[in-house]
From TrEMBL:
Top-level taxonomic group: Eukaryota
GO terms, molecular function: hydrolase activity
Keyword Hydrolase tagged: yes
Gene3D superfamilies recorded: HIT-like
Keywords from the UniProt entry: Hydrolase
SUPFAM superfamilies given in the database record: HIT-like
Protein name: Diadenosine tetraphosphate hydrolase HIT family-like protein
Organism of origin: Gigaspora margarita
Amino acid sequence: MKNQQMLEKKRHKEKEHFSDFSFTPESPYQLVDFLGGVNYTPSLDNNEIFNRSVGFFRKILTEIEMEKGWKHFKFFIVQKRINDGSGGFSVEISHAKKRRAPPKKTFNCLSCDFESETNKVSRIDFPSTTSDDTKKLLSLWLDAKARPMFIITPVRHVERLSECSDEELFSIFHLATQVLDEETKVSKAPWGDMRFIKMTLNHGNSRNLEHLHLKISVKRQDFKHFRDYGWDNVKKQKYKILENGLYKRDKRVQKIDNY
C-alpha cells in the first residue's frame, strides 16, 4: 500500500511538471545571472540586460497568447545546474486542459485590500538588495495558507503577466532571485547556492485568485531552514498566525457565492 502511494505521488509529480512548450535563452543561464545578478540596476549597462530579459519573456507571451490564442495556462520557471553547456533555467507553458470557471470573485482582492488582516499579516519586508523603484511596483508575501513558498504580486491590480509594464515584468522575476538569495545567505544555508522547485504564474481559469501572483515554491526542508535560522521573531510570529488558518476567518477576502 505504501509503495502504491509513493508511485501515485511520483506519477502526480511527473504529470504536474509536464508542459506543452519549453523556452530557453540561446545560451544556458541560471535565472539570477540572466537577470544581471541580485544587485543589478538597468542604469549599470544602459538597459542592455533589462531589454534582453524583457524581450525574452514578451516573446514567449506573444507566441502563447497572440499566436496560439491561449488564455488559460500555467507559466512556470524551473532550473537545473549548468553542466557542459546544458541546463540552466527554462520557461514551461502548460495549457489548462480542465474546463472550469474563472476564479470566484472575493469581497475584496486579498492583494489590494490593505484593511484585510490576512494582507497585513502575510506581507513581509523586501530583501536588502531591492531597489526603491521595485518596492513601488511590487509586494512581497508569505503564503496565506502557510505553504512553503513566497509570493510576489504587482501593486497594481493586473491579472496577466502580459498586462504588466516592462518594469513590472522584469522586477517580478528579479525580486524572486533577490528573495531566494537573501533567505539563503541570512540563514547560512549549507547548500549555499540559490535553489527552488519552480516559480509559477497561473493565467485564466488556472488561477484561484484574480490578482496575478508569482509563487516561488521551495522544498519544505529548505523553507524550514530559512524560518528556523534566518527569520526574526516578528516574521516567525506572522507565519505562525497564518499556519493557524487566519485566511479562513478573514471575512474581507471570502468568496462571493452565486456571483
